């Protein structure tokens, strides 16, 4: 057992440990073990199937310690031009932007279009992701959008009552707020905030299309209790705070920055 660590975690195969921590595929780990590149508590371990205690044993690969992290949670301000995927042949992915990641199995919780910016949670916690994305839970998502075209006068009421998309799909009631600031230099359209409770494909863009308008800029500001940290520039990320995570897991009410 490594110095200063306490035991007690469920045993885990060495190859699974190293694969989860992004050190390589199972076959690469097996090969590394055969070549004597892996040590457990200082001793060379040639069997990738050996069971270890992930919280107590010290594992090294080529002399570098590979620490075990069970769960990771990052808030990313997704930039435009990056895809919400784990792998992509053509574009950078949101997971690749998390350069401090420890694990090899992180994924984005939900998808933002390639040209959408803003809040994206990146984690390996499948249970939390399911909770946030489940269509039954109706987690609120708020977007800032810029719109081209004239919004109908009754747009707020129509969204509040629930509109039907152009292909006939009905969507749940949504809250539309018109931003007081008029078009700025370089900005063509009206700025609005829209809170939706579903996550249909291109939902925000399609909702405005149904009213005869076009979204020219879209940024997600919040998802459930989690709000985008406005100190994060597009492409920047940070780990969630303990409080943010606690709130998300308990699906509690929104936390304002001043409460944190
Ligand atoms: N709605 C959209 O149309 N696009 C997004 O990226 C997110 C919500």
User: What is the averaged pLDDT score?
Assistant: 91
Structural domains: how many: 3
Q: Give the radius of gyration.
A: 23 Å
What CATH calls the topology of the largest domain is: Alpha-Beta Plaits
SSE series: EHHEEEEEEEEHEHEEHEEEH
Kindly report how far apart the N and C termini lie: 38 Å
The total count of strands amounts to 15
Number of helices: 6
Label the CATH architecture of the largest domain.
2-Layer Sandwich
What overall form do the CA principal axes indicate?
elongated
> Biggest sheet, in brief?
9 strands, mixed
Strand content: 15-25%
**Residue share in helices?**
10-25%
The CATH first-level class of the largest domain comes to Alpha Beta
Class by alpha and beta content: alpha+beta
Bound molecules: uracil
Task: Give your account of this protein's structure.
The protein has 260 residues and is of the alpha+beta class. The protein has 3 domains: 54 residues, RNA-binding S4 domain (Structural Genomics Hypothetical 15.5 Kd Protein In mrcA-pckA Intergenic Region, Chain A); 89 residues, 2-Layer Sandwich (Alpha-Beta Plaits); 83 residues, 2-Layer Sandwich (Alpha-Beta Plaits). Helix content is 18%, strand content 25%. The protein is built from 6 helices and 15 strands. Strands 7, 8, 9, 10, 11, 12, 13, 14 and 15 form a 9-stranded mixed β-sheet that branches. Strands 3-2-5-6 form a 4-stranded antiparallel β-sheet, with no helix packed on it. A two-stranded antiparallel ribbon has the order 1-4. The protein is elongated, with a radius of gyration of 23 Å. The two termini are 38 Å apart. The structure holds uracil. Uracil binds next to helix 5.
């Amino acid at each position: 057992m490594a110095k200063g660590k306490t035991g007690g975690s469920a045993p885990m195969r060495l190859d699974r440990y190293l694969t989860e921590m992004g050190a390589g595929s199972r076959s690469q780990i097996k090969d590394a073990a055969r070549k004597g590149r892996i040590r457990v508590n200082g001793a060379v371990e040639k069997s990738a199937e050996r069971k270890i205690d992930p919280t107590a044993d010290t594992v090294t690969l080529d002399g570098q310690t590979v620490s075990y992290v069970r769960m990771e949670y990052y808030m990313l301000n997704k930039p435009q031009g990056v895809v919400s995927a784990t792998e992509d042949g053509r574009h950078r992915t949101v997971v690749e932007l998390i350069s401090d990641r420890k694990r090899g199995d992180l994924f984005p919780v939900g998808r933002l279009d390639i040209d959408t910016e803003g809040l994206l949670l990146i984690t390996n916690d499948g249970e939390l992701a399911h909770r946030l994305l489940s269509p039954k839970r109706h987690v609120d998502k708020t977007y800032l959008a810029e719109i081209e075209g004239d919004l109908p006068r009754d747009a707020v009421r129509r969204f509040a009552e629930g509109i039907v998309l152009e292909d006939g799909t009905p969507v749940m009631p949504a809250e539309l707020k018109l931003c007081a600031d008029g078009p700025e230099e370089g900005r063509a359209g009206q700025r609005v905030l829209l809170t939706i409770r579903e996550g249909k494909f291109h939902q925000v863009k399609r909702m405005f299309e149904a009213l005869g308008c076009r979204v020219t800029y879209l940024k997600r500001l919040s998802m459930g209790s989690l709000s985008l940290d406005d100190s994060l520039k597009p492409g920047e990320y940070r780990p969630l705070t303990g409080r943010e995570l606690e709130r998300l897991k308990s699906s509690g009410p929104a936390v304002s920055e001043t409460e944190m």
